[in-house]
Design a protein that fits this description.
Layout lengths: L6 E3 L4 E4 L5 H8 L5 E4 L3 H7 L3 H10 L4 E4 L7 H21 L4 E4 L6 H12 L13 H11 L7 H10 L1
Parallel strand pairs: 2-5, 3-4, 3-5
Antiparallel strand pairs: 1-2
Helix pairs in contact: 1-3, 4-5, 4-7, 5-6, 5-7
């Protein structure tokens, strides 16, 4: 057992969790119906995890997950962080609303960057969800995500900055 914990965010077509390390993790991702992956890790984070990336790519392919995007989000610089979140939210929108995909999005631990992207996506692109609620308020979107993903600890300052800047 790898201790891998993922969350399917209802009505958003997104699954969030940490960086997968084992084929069994990818099996769990595939069981949600996800058919695309967005990785928000910086290259040095991927290297430090020492994951067998070839094995992971093969495991994804064997389970019908063949669309991958690597959008490194630098969370050390406020400007770079907001820009990276915006780029990832735009790609998430492309996958879900233009291609009809369900997306597994991850950073390293699934606490901050991945949930921040989901919240930004909800505020910018998701027009209606349960009860036809529109997500204009990032705090309400953050609470919605937190209801499904208890590990969520989004960077609200970066989300607000992205909404103001872009």
């Amino acid at each position: 057992m790898s201790g891998f914990f993922i969350s399917d965010i209802e009505n958003v077509n997104v699954v969030v969790g940490p960086y997968p390390l084992y084929a069994i993790d990818i099996e769990q991702i595939a069981s949600t119906g996800a058919n695309a992956v967005i990785n928000l890790q910086k290259p040095e984070e991927i290297v430090s995890r020492e994951a067998d990336t070839k094995m992971l790519e093969q495991a994804y392919g064997q389970r019908g997950i063949n669309t991958f995007f690597h959008i490194p989000v630098d969370d050390e610089s406020p400007a770079a962080h907001a820009k990276g979140l915006m780029e990832a939210a735009s790609r998430l929108n492309y996958c879900i609303n233009e291609k009809g995909m369900k997306v597994y999005i991850h950073c390293t631990s699934s606490c901050t960057r991945a949930t921040s992207v989901i919240i930004l996506y909800m505020c910018l692109y998701l027009r209606t969800v349960t009860y036809k609620q529109q997500w204009r308020n990032p705090e309400e979107a953050a609470e919605y995500v937190r209801n499904y993903h208890r590990l969520s600890h989004p960077n609200m300052k970066a989300i607000h900055s992205a909404l103001r800047t872009y």
